Amino acid sequence: MTSAKYDVLAIGNALFDVLVRAEDDFLVKHGMAKGGMALIDEARAAAIYADMGQATEMSGGSAANTIVGLANLGARAAYVGKVKNDQIGRLYSHDIRAAGVTFDTKPASDGPATGCSYILITPDGERTMNTYLGAAQDLGPADIDPEQIAAAALIYLEGYLWDPKNAKEAFLKASQIAHGAGRQVALTLSDPFCVDRYRDEFLELMRSGTVDLIFANESELHSLYQTSDFDSALNQLQNDVGLGVVTRSEKGCAVVAKDAVTLVPAARIEKLVDTTGAGDLFAAGFLFGLARNAGYENAGRLGALAAAEVIQHIGARPQVSLKELAQQHGLPV
Description:
Elements: E1 6-11, E2 15-21, H1 24-29, E3 37-39, H2 42-51, E4 56-60, H3 62-73, E5 77-80, H4 87-98, E6 101-103, E7 114-121, E8 127-134, H5 146-150, E9 152-158, H6 165-180, E10 184-188, H7 192-207, E11 213-217, H8 218-225, H9 230-240, E12 243-247, E13 253-257, E14 261-264, H10 278-291, H11 296-310, H12 322-328
Parallel strand pairs: 1-5, 1-9, 2-7, 3-8, 5-6, 9-10, 10-11, 11-12
Antiparallel strand pairs: 2-4, 7-8, 12-13, 13-14
Helix pairs in contact: 3-10, 7-8, 8-9, 10-11
């Protein structure tokens, strides 16, 4: 196996985030399921946007947030995602490259606009997402460069990719190329509602060895195995995949290998402001720890630290150097 050019290459829905603080009444008025992600069309996107208050707008997308976090830590990082060659798409491309991430996916010249996610943050810090996929849904197998995939030690995929059909095929193509090159493939389950939609397919990806590593939070794990018993779900995860990582908010995380379960505490925070990107940045820290062969406990601590940074401000990308933060906490970078 040749040495890797990239530590991690992520594939995801390239989305621009529009974040706004809102009361629970706003969610009720618009029929939103709190804490989840709903796919919306252009008309609903316009209606929500028109009713939103003053917004913070920035580049986002789950796997993109993760790869930006990895680059921030010092990893060699690349991203595959589809934007349109419009104003927002050009801004998105600039942002991810400015973060130190290789981004070579060709933008769409026609079709729907660059995708946007309208994110409502309630006073408890919970985020509720309404996503117009736009150009992101046109990511397809042709956007997967076999040489680039084979050059990455680990491929990271977001479960949200299972919604658009073309992206699903791109996902499977990337996994096959990666395994053919002796690389590893990770999948984040993304959202309990996403798991509800694709439970059987996600389980098949795990059991068939299409993915080697699963990231899930507690809600996603319970949805995957349709049980409220955490230990039972953890045992099933241990049987179904080579490595699983389950985040549990303030309870920390469980790293589930075939031979052992490692429990890692959460990092302390001053104040919870916005949970947007918590799982994305946890994955960034954990994957960075794996890339540096730091061991499961240190990888979990890096993940917890990155997640703690991002939930203490608005937006899903770090506002400080995660590398310096990790060094201050005595973690290997």
